Every structure is written in C-alpha cells, then in structure tokens.
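Same chain as my last thread, 393 residues:
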Amino acid sequence: MNKRMIRTLFVAVVSTVLALTPATNAQQSTKPLTNGDIINMTKGGLAESTILAVIRANRSNFDVSPNALIALKSAGVSQNVISEVVTTASSNDQKSITPAASAPATPAAPAAQVGPTPNAEPSVPGKVSTDSATSLPSSQTLPSESSAQSKEPSVILLPAGSQAGTKAPPSGIALPLEKTQLSQTKTKSSSLGHLANDSATTQALESGVNTAVWEGAAHSGSLPGEVAASQTGSILSSVMSHRKSAVTYLWAVTGPNSPLHAPSNQPSFVVNFAGWMYVSVDEFEPVIVKLTPTPPPTVWRLVGASQGKENEFSSSAVDWQGFSHFLQDQAPTQIKKVSPGLFEVSAQAPLEAGEYGIVLRPLSKTMKFSAADIARNQGNGKVFNSVWTFDVK
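reply #2:
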C-alpha cells in the first residue's frame, strides 16, 4: 500500500469519527425526563400533543407516587399527559425487572395467597377492624395484580354462610361496577330520607347528566363542549357564573333496585382494588352503605350527599374536603385487610331489607380532592363515584 492510499484511508477514518462525535455526545448529554420537565413544558404553553410526543421520544425517570401525581394535576398538567407519564413509568419498571431470556419465568403468586397485615386498622365509627386478617378463600378466583385485568377493581359476593376464617366456598358472584350520577339541588337536609322524598331532588336527578357525558365534554378542552354539557343538565351548569349559592350535591344510581340479591341478610364480600391506577390503596377502604330510594314513578337510589357551593366543582385544585361533611347511611361493616387494596368485608350485624352498596371511602375524613376530578369521574374522583349495588330481602 503506497503513501497516498494510506493518507486517503486515514483522512476517511478521521472524518467519520468527527462526524459521529457530536451526535454521540448529544445523546450522552440528554438527561431523562422528570416530572419537573413535564410541569415546565405545561407552564410554557406547549400543546398536549407536543408533550406526549416528547415523552414517547425520550428516556424518562418519572415519579408516579400519589403526591407526585397530585402535584402534576395541581400544576395544570392534563389528564392525558398524566396517564402517559404513569404508563411510561410502569413500562420502565417492567423492563427493569424483566428476567433474562434464558431464565425460566416464575408465575406470580395469586392475590389470595398474600399474607396478613399485622397492624390494626384505624378505628372508624360504623365498622369493626381486626388486628390481623385470615387468608382469602383458596378457591375464590381473583384478578392477578400483575395482569391487565387487575387495574379494574372487583367485588365478589360470597355464598351464604361464607364468613372470614371459614372453609373456602366453591364460588362467588361478581358485582358490576356502577358510576353514580351527580346532580345538585337547593334543598338542604341532614337526612338522605328527607332528600329522597323532596320533589326538588327527583327533578334535579332527572335533569342531571351522567358523569361520562361531562367527562367527554371536559376532555374536549373547548368552551362549546362545556356549554353542550351544561345544556344537557350538567351539575356544572353554573361553572361560568360568578354566583356561589349554597347547594346540595347528590350522588345516586338509577333504578328502583339492584339485579343482584344477597344470599343472606349478613353478606360477605371480597374487594380487590389493589391494581386500580391512580388510587393510593392505603388511603381508601370498602364499606357497606344503605341506599335510599326516591318515590315512584321515577326511582333513584341515593348513595350520598354533600353541602357545597354552586360552582365548587369547577375547581381543579386539590383543596375540596367534601367527605368531611359527606352524608351517607353507613351500615356497621366488619373489615379485614388482607393486603393493600385487598379486603374481606361483611355486615357486622344482619341488615334490614332494602338496597345497599359497597363503596370505597377515604380513611381520613379530611382527605382533600380536586372537585373537578369528582365531576369528571377521574383520579380519586372516579374511586369516590364508584358503587357496587345489591339488595337484601
């Protein structure tokens, strides 16, 4: 090889190295995206679609703890972006724990085999908590926390005679998840029975709009969407108004009774919300509440009510203490915590004939919500709005 060929080859190699160095350095200097970057992009006015594209195109190190998600929400980050943050973080966690291809896969242990929680639950009026929990019925099929289905909660009604600590029953009945409808009325009362028999309550419920309708309008991000929801009777019909009259917000489910009948007047349940996204499982627990029907011909079943301001649900700030003065008829409930988000629940005493529901309620009466989350049926609001109904003969 002559000197000219060597020189040409050397120049080519050096040129290639110099061309690749800037790109390599740039790649190495790119830091993973953090929650702070998401907040900065949001406050900087970047479009939601742009922020989503940035998340998908870059490495990330997101904090998806409940407090961190609340901070994102309070900073004005959209629900779609928060969902993408959680999905990305979950994907990163999954990659970090994925076993080598040569290693045999180890099946996940069923949720029913999780050991007891040694610490006693806080004492709350209307319920009985135990210091330790017995194992769940071994034959009861529950969603695996590692499966996609585990992100949706489940409530299993156990057969008659099945109590915590007894031999496993052969099967159970899954109660369907129902969403409460939100409405408002000028009527004030400290009794669900009085509210149910007030004509203004029935009118408010009939003119109310299902949370799904408002959710669709709210996610449109446009004023016409909000106006359309208002014209269909949304509880937020006065959001754009400056009036702040005192009103009663109503949570109700439609229909005179539940299609599911409890096999006894002291029913037992297995409640699993361990994998429900956006829920801090250590802040909620299941309880049994009595539903109060309105008179015919159009019958609703009141789940609860709360006093508030007429345009209170327009606030997205996490500052609404609606549960501190929430009105509901809670039945004495025996609760056994098996693991975070997994409970055995039963009536402490025989229930009177009537309509009932399993609901998830905060352990702390002073827990703060974003009122808009409740109105739009998202985040902790979705948890609060959920009910699994049954009746007792």
